[in-house]
Design a protein that fits this description.
- Helix content is 8%, strand content 31%.
- It is mainly beta.
Length: 770
């Protein structure tokens, strides 16, 4: 292939470019970027090198951090000196050849160390990690870094002294076609920065003024995977260093991912699809699937992944979702599947809530109710769920009733029965087994009337204050869900096959034992809101009996009305009526945020103290002056008294979702590998955000660039932030949703190169006050 250039032709050279020395921060960062990228290419590299050796490689094959001995060592072929450390950090001891690790030059302050004997200038200790390779009596000899006799003990290479510099020459080649590459950034980390050069038109480089050091030479190019040389001992001028880079073919076009049609996963809230993709350029990093609405808007990124089998969960019922997939490459570019024409091919509509939450023992079909088109009334039917979680009518029972027949409880349409007739005169004789007319035939109540179920009821007695227990038949046509059962026996037996028809689909909660009052609810779904229906009224005691996951809101708390018995899933700080419910025995929630006036100025945004509220929301604050519980997650107006976040944002009224939202958004920033960017590219770094309640277009992401001399807190967006000058930075960022929930400050390492391209250094937007 033709030689590759570094970004543009203005940086091609026909001779080795003069080397430069830069700051230590820049040096360490660029070495780390290149080294990490190289490790990603090798399947044999350990996840984190606390100490490592090349197997059977002999003296000088082991490395660790400067001045420390690792508690654990790994063995792999990619073991190398850590960028920025002095070497030899660890050398194999010639005197103990069977022990791979050997003797070490280190400071006296090492982990698990014994005392140093100043007379012998020697520290001896036994390491358990060596026993497997040698005998239990194997010892290690340590010397301080300032003691040259370390060499005598270890038999390794003497520590390299300061004051002498050398020249390192070499070349870079493309692995795909063995041709030289121009415009490669080649560099060596040194204690006070780094030394770098660009390769010429023949792929050659010269690094000058390199101090005596044992190191590797690193190389990066925007169209190649990062690379590095084998270890190089610079104790004299060095030549012949070769670095092979894995580069895409010149003119190689990145392929677009395509999707199979998304399909529902039966009886779950999940959707699955498969990506078809050809990594022709050999520089693919990962996919980022996006979940969008039916118009391919409000797209929320899913976690990055390399797998082509994608599963998305937590989906709402009867909702259309469309999917787009972006492919990210090492040169910072992306391709995406797009809307696939009309978009129908990449979209799926989820099924009904019931079908998406079928219990494990649910039958294939069951009795249920279907809504007729007005003015036609609703009717019973035999129902089932298909493989896409769509509710289907297997058999319509219009004019009849659906009942379970036989020992297998097969749902069947049967003639409607007047179940009240089975109770006899005054409704007191249900146990007599009376016979009634059903469809022109005589049927014995109970055994021959499957559409009628028997349960005990309590009625007030005129002669006694105690209620009477009376058995009575009731029609299953009155039971559309678990809530339709009025008594424990019929509820727990699911006599009419409510919900999904499972015998265990319903559970009973007693509210009043004396009156036989309670609520029947679908198992696992507390029917808090049925509290008032069961008794004709509801209070805190009755609400609590339904479930410990129900809370009775009896005070308005500044809202229009109290909400009564609320499920935990809908709870908010604002609904707590008492200080004990709001913060418990603990204190108000505290977030690590500082202000100057009304502007956030610093810290981590972390929640340092969680409120001890009843349901563990953790973000609640009790305001004594108003006797109210509020959420003040942004810590604004924390003195003299807190204000509710939704009131601050002027979206309180009519926005229950704001009141109930206490979860911060999640932000993902996608940096290429290595994370080296030109100044103009900063504005277009891809950012993905998601939130459980706030739409993506209402979430704000803030950033800043921290370096060794300038600490910062994110206050600007990528579109408006001042562009950093050339150097190594920590990109700090977080997002905030419209309910004022603020994400923890995150960070990524990034390097900025100034290629003297035109760029807007800063964008300032002022409000139009005309």
């Amino acid at each position: 292939m033709a030689a590759l250039s570094w970004y543009d032709q203005s940086h091609r050279v026909s001779r080795p470019v003069a080397t430069t020395r830069s700051s230590p921060v820049f040096a360490i960062a660029i070495a780390v970027f290149a080294f990490v990228a190289f490790l990603l290419l090798s399947s044999s590299v350990s996840a984190a090198i606390t100490g490592c050796c090349k197997p059977n490689a002999g003296t000088g094959s082991c490395f660790t951090g400067e001045g420390s001995f690792p508690d654990q060592l790994s063995f792999n072929e990619a073991c190398a000196q850590l960028p920025g450390t002095m070497v030899p950090s660890v050398t194999t001891c010639a005197g103990i050849p069977d022990c791979t690790i050997g003797c070490c030059c280190a400071t006296a302050n090492v982990p698990n160390s014994a005392q140093i004997n100043d007379d012998e200038e020697q520290l001896k200790m036994t390491r358990n990690s060596c026993v497997a390779k040698s005998t239990p009596s194997a010892t290690y000899n340590f010397r301080s870094l300032d003691k040259p006799t370390c060499v005598e003990v270890c038999g390794g290479t003497p520590p390299i002294g300061p004051g002498t510099t050398h020249t390192v020459r070499g070349s870079t080649y493309n692995l795909t076609d063995a041709k030289p590459i121009s415009g490669v950034n080649v560099f060596i980390p040194v204690p006070d920065g780094y030394i770098s050069a660009m390769t010429d038109a023949y792929g050659l480089f010269t690094l000058r003024d390199v101090p005596q050091i044992n190191t590797r030479v690193f190389a990066i190019h925007p169209q190649c995977r990062p690379g590095q040389s084998p270890a190089v001992l610079v104790d004299k001028d060095v030549s012949g260093v070769r670095i092979d880079l894995n580069c895409q073919l010149q003119g190689c076009a990145h392929a677009k991912p395509t999707l199979s049609k998304p399909k529902a996963v039966r009886a779950t809230d999940k959707v699955a699809f498969t990506i078809t993709f050809n990594d022709a350029c050999q520089d693919f990093i990962h996919f980022v699937p996006q979940r969008c609405d039916a118009q391919f808007r409000n797209c929320m990124p899913l976690p990055p992944q390399v797998s082509k089998e994608i599963t998305d969960d937590g989906l709402a019922p009867e909702t259309t979702y469309c999917y787009n997939v972006k492919a990210y490459f090492t040169d910072g570019t992306t391709t995406e599947s797009g809307a696939a024409g009309t978009g129908a091919g990449n979209c799926v509509t989820t099924g009904s809530r019931g079908c998406m939450s079928l219990s494990e023992d649910a039958p294939v079909s069951w009795c249920g109710t279907v809504q007729g088109t007005p003015p036609a009334p609703s009717s019973q039917a035999v129902l089932s769920c298909d493989e896409n979680n769509i509710l289907k009518t297997v058999q319509s029972c219009t004019g009849k009733e659906c009942a379970y027949i036989g020992p297998d409880r097969t749902p069947t349409c049967v003639d409607a029965a007047d179940c009240e007739q089975c109770n006899g005169i005054y409704g007191f004789f249900a146990r007599l087994g009376l016979t009634i007319k059903v469809g022109g035939l005589s049927k014995r109540c109970g055994t021959e009337t499957p559409a009628c179920y028997l349960e005990s009821t309590r009625q007030a007695s005129s002669s006694s204050s105690k209620p009477l227990l009376i058995d009575a038949y009731t029609s299953c046509s009155q039971v559309a869900s678990c809530e339709g059962y009025g008594k424990r026996e019929s509820c727990e037996a699911n006599a009419c096959g409510a919900a999904d028809g499972s015998p265990t689909a319903c559970e009973w909660k007693t509210i009043s034992e004396e009156l036989g009052k309670g609520v029947c609810m679908k198992r696992g779904e507390p029917a808090c809101k049925l509290c008032a229906t069961a008794l004709g009224y509801c209070d805190a005691q009755a609400c609590a009996r339904i479930s410990s996951d129900c809370y009775f809101d009896g005070a308005a708390n500044g809202l229009a009305d109290p909400l009564g018995c609320i499920p935990k899933s809908e709870m908010a700080c604002r609904y707590y009526d008492t200080k004990d419910d709001c913060v418990g025995a603990g204190s108000n929630a505290v977030f690590d945020i500082t202000y100057a006036g009304d502007k956030r100025t610093g810290r981590t945004n972390a929640r340092t103290t969680a409120s001890g509220d009843r349901f563990g929301i953790g973000a609640c604050t009790w305001v004594d002056a108003r006797s109210q519980c509020v959420k003040n997650a942004d810590m604004r107006f924390s003195t003299p008294q807190s204000e509710d976040d939704c009131i601050e944002n002027n979206i309180f009224q009519g926005q229950q979702s704001c009141v109930r939202d206490s979860t911060p958004p999640t932000t993902i920033i996608y940096l290429r590998t290595p994370a080296v960017y030109s100044r103009p590219e900063v504005r277009i770094i891809p950012v993905g955000v998601s939130d459980d309640k706030t739409p993506v277009d209402r979430i704000r992401t803030y950033v800043c660039f921290k370096n060794a001399t300038n600490d910062c807190y994110p206050t600007e967006t990528l579109a408006s932030v001042s562009l950093p000058s050339e150097g190594s930075y920590e990109l700090r960022y977080y997002s905030m949703d419209e309910s004022m929930n603020i994400e923890l400050v995150k960070s990524k390492e990034i390097m900025i190169k100034d290629y003297h391209q035109a760029a807007l250094d800063r964008v300032h937007i002022e409000e139009n006050r005309d």
